[in-house]
Write a structure and sequence with these properties.
Distance between the termini: 36 Å
Structural class: mainly beta
Largest sheet: 10 strands, antiparallel
Strand order of the largest sheet: 5-8-9-10-1-2-3-4-6-7
Length: about 160
């Protein structure tokens, strides 16, 4: 009986995927907050000290992701996403902005005053298809929600999904 139990355990271990990296797809999901709304944001109607969101991050060229990075924020009454060719960096970069607040809105990275995003810090600093640990990202957005001069910060906790 002991041999049968050992044999079944060995068969089960053989059929189980060898590592978590094989099952990951490059989508990091979790949550975060947007905070530190500048006066321009408050004047445009953002009255929160902070706003909580579910978040999805798809970094370029990881898993099934193309050579574009997507960062999307979802709440009960609003959603927005920013997208950029390549990867986000520590420098402010113009992004494409897609949002649904009171109405649908799109802003190109080529606008005169585009929305800009930077990652101030990310831990771990390098992520890939095999990253299984929780990823923390701290960043900033300029011209948030298409509002000139509106600046916010964000803090995210994300886990790669399979």
């Amino acid at each position: 009986m002991l041999r049968l139990a050992l044999f079944l355990a060995l068969v089960a271990a053989t059929l189980t995927p060898g590592s978590a990296a094989q099952a990951f797809n490059g989508r990091f999901q979790g949550g975060g907050t947007i905070n530190f709304f500048s006066d321009e944001c408050v004047n445009a109607g953002w009255i929160e000290n902070s706003a909580a969101f579910m978040v999805r991050f798809e970094p370029a060229n990881i898993g099934y992701n193309p050579d574009r990075s997507l960062l999307a924020f979802f709440a009960m009454d609003r959603a927005f996403a920013v997208q950029i060719d390549g990867n986000f960096t520590t420098a402010f970069q113009p992004v494409e902005l897609y949002q649904i607040l009171d109405d649908a809105y799109f802003s190109s990275a080529r606008e005169r005053r585009p929305t800009q995003v930077r990652f101030r810090s990310m831990y771990p600093a390098l992520i890939g298809a095999e990253t299984a640990e929780t990823v923390r990202i701290w960043g900033d957005i300029r011209n948030f929600a298409g509002t000139p001069g509106c600046r916010v910060s964000f803090e995210l906790l994300l886990q790669q999904q399979n």
